[in-house]
Amino acid sequence: MRTDLSSATLTALLLALPFTVRAAPFPDADHAVAKDMHTRMCVECHERRFGGEDGSAIYLRPDRRVTTPSALSQQLTACTTMLNLDLFPEDEHHLAGYLNKLYYKFE
Q1: Contact at 8 Å (CB) between 37 and 43?
Q2: 95 pLDDT tier (thresholds 50, 70, 90)
Q3: DSSP letters along the chain, please?
Q4: Residues ≥6 apart with Cβ < 8 Å to 51
Q5: How many CB atoms lie within 10 A of CB 31?
Q6: Which member of 19, 38, 89, 92 has the greatest number of CB atoms within 10 A?
Q7: CA distance to 1, 23, 28, 68, per residue, from 104 (Å)
Q8: Can you tell me the mean pLDDT for 53-60?
């Protein structure tokens, strides 16, 4: 079965594309839990390696590695592995949502 769209319908659909709703990259992230994990597991190392009074310089530097939500998730997994942190994937998800809200602002 073939359905032809009228040019008016097609134009309306194309005009609506920029206004489509995008899903948040880290839905249901628990920011309160993540803030505590970040303070306990991340800040000291980030302060030592990248400066800033709370280690935030790592997130704010102009040459940062993390430029997409996927890269943020991958970096959290890399830190978890390299530092033998006792984090589950859902913990990394919470941290990603928290860091995104504070620093990255990915949509």
Answers
A1: no
A2: very high
A3: ---PPPHHHHHHHHHHGGGPPPPPSSTT--HHHHHHHHHHHTHHHHHHHH-STTSTHHHH-TT-S--SHHHHHHHHHHHHHHTT----HHHHHHHHHHHIIIII---
A4: 57
A5: 17
A6: 92
A7: 46, 15, 17, 9
A8: 87
8 A C-beta contact, residue 79 and residue 8 = no
- For 10, the token pair is 């097609």
For residue 60, what pLDDT is reported? 87
Token pair of 62 as six digits: 């102009």
Structure-block tokens of residue 99:
């860091």
8 A C-beta contact, residue 38 and residue 29: no
